[in-house]
Fold this protein.
Amino acid sequence: QLLLVESGGGLVQAGDSLRLSCAASGRTFSRHYMGWFRQAPGKSRAIVAAITPPGRNTYYEDSTKGRFTISRDNAKNTVYLQMHSLKPEDTAVYYCAAKSSYHGDYVNPSWVYDYWGQGTQVTVSS
C-alpha cells in the first residue's frame, strides 16, 4: 500500500515555472507506475504525465509536451512534475497517483490507478 502526499503548488504568473513533488510511503514505490493528473473546476480529472517504474519511459498529454517533465527518484520514493511556461489554462488541482503493472503501459485513464494523493492547487494568473 502507498500513501501519496503532493507538495509544491501555488500561485504563479503566466510564463513562470513550478515543480510539484509527490512523496510516497511504502516499500513498493519502485514497482509502481506513477502519474500526474489535474482537475480544473467543472472538468473531469485528466492525465498530465506518467512514468514507468524504472523511469525509462514517460507519457505526456499533448498540451503539456515540451513544457512539463515528469521524473522520479526511486531511492527517495518521490515523483516530480517540473512545469515551465505555465499558462492560465494549467490552473487546476494536481494529483499524483500510483498504479501497479497489471494494466501495463495503459496509463491514461484514472481508473487504472490504485492510490491517489490529496492534491495540490496550482493557479496561474494571466
In short: Residues 94 and 120 are 5 Å apart (CA to CA). The mean pLDDT is 95. The first strand starts at residue 3 and ends at 7.
